[in-house]
Write a structure and sequence with these properties.
Length: 108
């Protein structure tokens, strides 16, 4: 029974660490770029698009499609970075129980 009690305590500690990590994720912000830095987007930890910055040299007649493509590419860059940071934070929080497939625990 000691092993089961120890495992339960570890699981409870991990749940607290996961809750703490989720709170830190909510405060996270990630920047993605495209076009050699001409387009920058910022995503919040929730994945919400927070900001778009465009180099003024892009804002010319006939450049709308290029701008659209660059915004999509910058968003994809930011989303990849955000996903990687989220996964790393959750793996760190889960510690030795990461990937054990326990009910209610996130899978990485």
């Amino acid at each position: 029974m000691k092993d089961l009690n120890s495992l339960m305590k570890q699981a409870q500690a991990m749940q607290q660490k996961l809750a703490d990590a989720q709170a830190r994720l909510a405060e996270l912000s990630v920047e993605g770029t495209s076009g050699g830095g001409m387009v920058k987007v910022t995503l919040k930890g929730s994945g919400e698009l927070h900001r778009v910055d465009l180099d003024e040299s892009l804002i010319q007649p006939g450049e709308g499609e290029v701008i659209s493509d660059l915004i999509v590419a910058a968003h994809a860059d930011a989303k990849r970075k955000l996903d990687a940071q989220q996964a790393e934070m959750m793996r760190e929080a889960a510690g030795p129980l990461a990937g054990m497939g326990l009910p209610g625990m996130p899978k990485f």
